[in-house]
Amino acid sequence: MKTLKGSDNNRLAISIGPGKYTAHVARWLEYGFHHFKAGKYIFHPFIRPAVDENESAAQKAILTTLESEIVKTYESGDAPSE
Fold this sequence. Notes:
alpha+beta; two-stranded antiparallel ribbon; 2 domains
């Protein structure tokens, strides 16, 4: 996970994902590669099945977290004024 600050120091972006080398190998596993010794195309998808299986739980977790953070920000008085 990387946290990046914007140029105005008010914006924050968080990037969640695998590192450079992990992503490289993950692509081979997810989409397949030709194994020269075995002489066949090999793939072991793991990302798409995991997303499909956990999509509703992830959406619920995101909505719950966003709601609680918005309420917390509003109640603390840190919300931006118009």
